[in-house]
Amino acid sequence: MTPAIFTAIFLATLLATVVLRLWLLHRHLSHIAAHRDVVPIDFAKQITLAEHQKAADYVTAKGRLSRLEIFLDVVVLLAFTLGGVLQFFATQLHDFFGAGYWHGVALFGLVSVVGFLLSLPFDLFRTFRIEASFGFNKITPKLWLLDIFKGTGLAIAIGVPLLLTVFWLMDVMGERWWIYVWLVWMGFNLLVLFLFPTVIAPLFNKFTPLQDEALKTRIEALLTRCGFTTSGLFVMDGSRRSSHGNAYFSGFGRAKRIVFFDTLLERLTPPEIDAVLAHELGHFRHKHIVKRIVFMAFASLALLWLLAQLMTQPWFFIGLGVTPVGAGDTPLALLLFSMVMPVFMFLLSPLSAAVSRRHEFQADAYAASHAAASELISALVKLYRDNASTLTPDPLHSLFYDSHPPAATRIAHLRSL
Question: Of the residues 131, 274, 364, 386, which is catalytic?
């Protein structure tokens, strides 16, 4: 393949992806606007017209911002690749660091900083304008900055050793380097999953043992019925940042933790909490997390193999606006690959979304067999209302983007159980 042909393929795929994303977003916002003035009949008794319209306006506000982000993403990607920005950064850093591993670390760091600065206005507007205007934002500017500093420090502490290890393996392990990098990558992900509940998450939130003895007794009875063990039930101070509610599991084996947002406990009744927890237990019973880890393992192995083939081809570099220089190719290849692969992978989004929605249906069925389906329906309706989730998403947009079934479809499935 020649560089010109690869450039044409890249540009054609990028154009098709951008047009598709904008068209899907337009369909989604138009569909929501068309149904803004009528609450779906299945929700008319629990959700008022004002609450339904609030959800429509909330999703529309976020969608309009997303449209601008799509355009920015395209401009930045073209600037870094065919526009020569990445080549410029690589050349300047090479003059300072040489062609060693630290050149690659510095290049990744510089690209990350530029990306952060470009996305910063969008994050600020989303948090302090959109989320605040709809009553969801609770985070203060001080805490917001503190989160950034903590996140940056954590990224440096974890990312630098990982990058140095990857660059070293790519340099010394010959043609099979991608196998060794894959092993390190999988080990790193499993380590993060193991450390997240006790080391990483507490850096950002406070976790306290569940104090409500009556609720604790109910939950422990549910866990016993389902044959689950846990290292503890915890409440997270999610209300410090947002009024959105949630619950999740973390950890492995007997070290599994159950975490409830304090906002969730304030809104749901004990039977509804039982039903929500039973749904989460359903994911564990059906081994959805394990299946996702296995899928990620195979996908990452395939992508690393593909990278190993591409980085030996000059047309891959030249076709994306970068001149290969030998010893400095490894970081450039890794960066280019991470930048352009989302363009080529977007059309596969419906497949991953479909698998995720199937898992949600299975977890709902499990919850209905160990708690009351009516209580899960009631809990979901409250969460749809309180989180201003749209009840009328565009079906095609949902096919690409939604990991959970649309509200009406999910409620209908639960009622059938």
Answer: 364
